[in-house]
Request: fold
Amino acid sequence: MKVNAGVWIDHRKALIVLMTAAGERTVLIVSRVEKHLQRSGDSPLRGRYEAQQVPADDRREKALTAELNIFYDAVIAVLRSAESYIILGPGEAKGELKKRLVTRKLGGRVTAIMVADKMSDRQITAKVREHFSAPWSVKGPKAGRPNAGLRGRISPAPDAR
Reply:
């Protein structure tokens, strides 16, 4: 059975739409990536031990990378059954997912990467459906439909009496 997939992804969550001839199914994967802790500027009110209250940058970066690895692996596990993918999203996560798919020898299945801001689940599903729709869909005239652009009536052929 042919399976097409669309993924809306950022570092917080991924919504995967799997489309088959039998119907559509959505899978939501939420990452455990925490918001980046930021160091505040030096302030005499903070005291001299402020640097000990925030973890070192390399430890935070390693923890972030480990959580993202788990997140991307979960997304790829769901996508593995699909024959072709479309990747949507607002930030860098699209490119990071594409790189991981290429390293896993799945990069050839990516048909498009599109920038898409915040979208509802229904909007994502509609976008994926539109991308993978057949040329005879109801979206308007397409190649392969000879009379699709005609307006009005077509006069019948004259009778040969």
In short: The two ends are 53 Å apart (CA to CA). Strands lie at 4-9, 13-20, 23-30, 84-89, 110-115. DSSP finds three helices and five strands in the chain. Confidence is low (pLDDT under 50) at residues 136-154.
